[in-house]
Write a structure and sequence with these properties.
14 helices; about 45% helix; two-stranded antiparallel ribbon; binds glutamine
């Protein structure tokens, strides 16, 4: 803990607005046109079925906290959510157990290492460090309430569906494909067990984790899910409170430091938004109080982040004033009476 123990201070929020609908729509079109021909990166194939994705797919969705939808390209194409599920499972566990529990058991610091690193666990006495890398995500899934594995899985599926505002379905082919090739995740779960870091059955927990990664979403869904975190935990399309404003805030803080794996620092420096990526090509980037971007394009870089998605977020963050750290000089204008 960095903050004072046992002391609470009421959280006030301070965020600006977005440009007009016309500016947002024109900027989305421009960004889509600019990057749709970019062919850097590769479609992930370490989960064999993912290799079937069409590398041309490219969709951009921006949903405002107030509910207005702006989209261009392949925003209705379904793909497996993969690592982006980690952000929302983290939020659900914080909501149903507590943020402090996840902070204490899993951690909230970046590993500086790849998403599937075994070494990160070994270097830290078995502590997985954060819920956005595989070891930490498995440890977080293990904390999901439910007396049986089926109940835990149903809590995750229905919880993520509340974020999306529609029932999400499992892609059985992706699930089967990953279950036959995820020896490393099973090893990570056994390693956590050996350190006493998970007390549920490790292989059952990996099974639930793999299911959560296999839920099918679209770029539109990602924007709705992100906009829920941007809107104090209320889904802007259904009006339903999915998690508390405090949990939404805690989730965004974790995404800012860990959401883009070992590239999180570079991402925050350049783009200035909490975000989460998945190896199937999705990215969700959140501008608190304003809205969220959902992007989808399957070619990913070495860290597993979508190449076109990152470029699009970079451009949109600047052009639409989304960067959390950007400000305009006010004092000078006031002094000059402008
Ligand atoms: N299901 C994938 C895995 O566990 C998720 C990884 C990712 O999207 N980076 O390897």
């Amino acid at each position: 803990m960095v903050g004072p123990e046992g002391e609470t201070v009421t959280q006030r929020a301070s965020t600006g607005g977005l440009p007009s609908d016309g500016v947002i729509d024109a900027t989305l079109e421009e960004v889509h046109a600019r990057y749709h021909g970019l062919d850097d990166g590769e479609v992930a194939d370490y989960i064999p079925v993912l290799a079937e994705a069409d590398p041309r797919w490219f969709g951009l969705s921006l949903i405002e906290s107030a509910g207005t939808v702006h989209e261009v390209g392949d925003v209705d194409t379904e793909f497996s959510i993969q690592s982006i599920s980690k952000a929302f499972v983290f939020a659900l566990v914080c909501q149903s157990r507590s943020s402090e529990l996840v902070h204490e058991r899993v951690g909230v610091n970046n590993t500086g290492l790849a998403f599937n690193s075994v070494m990160a666990v070994e270097l830290n006495d078995g502590k997985p460090l954060n819920s956005m890398v595989n070891a930490g995500a498995i440890a977080t899934t293990a904390l999901m309430p439910g007396t049986t594995s089926a109940e835990k899985w149903e809590n995750i599926r229905s919880g993520l569906s509340r974020f999306a505002g529609r029932p999400l379905r499992l892609d059985g082919r992706v699930y089967e494909s990953e279950m036959t090739t995820n020896q490393r995740n099973k090893a990570l779960a056994r390693l956590l067990e050996s350190y006493g870091r998970i007390i549920t059955d490790p292989l059952d927990t990996v099974d639930i984790y793999t299911r959560q990664c296999s839920l099918q979403v679209t770029a539109h869904d990602l924007a709705v899910m992100g906009a829920t975190l941007a809107d104090g935990g209320i889904n802007p399309l259904t009006g339903r409170q999915v998690v508390s404003a405090e949990v939404a805030r805690d989730t965004l803080a974790l995404l800012a430091s860990c959401g883009m794996y070992e590239n999180s620092g570079e991402w925050l420096f350049e783009i200035g938004l909490p975000a989460k990526s998945g190896v199937s090509g999705g990215i969700v980037a959140i501008a608190p109080g304003k809205g969220a971007l959902g992007t989808f394009s399957p070619r990913v870089d070495a860290a597993g982040n979508s190449v076109r998605g990152q470029r699009a977020c970079f451009h949109l963050s600047r052009a639409l004033g989304l960067n959390l750290f950007a400000s305009n000089a006010v004092a000078q204008r006031v002094r000059e009476g402008r």
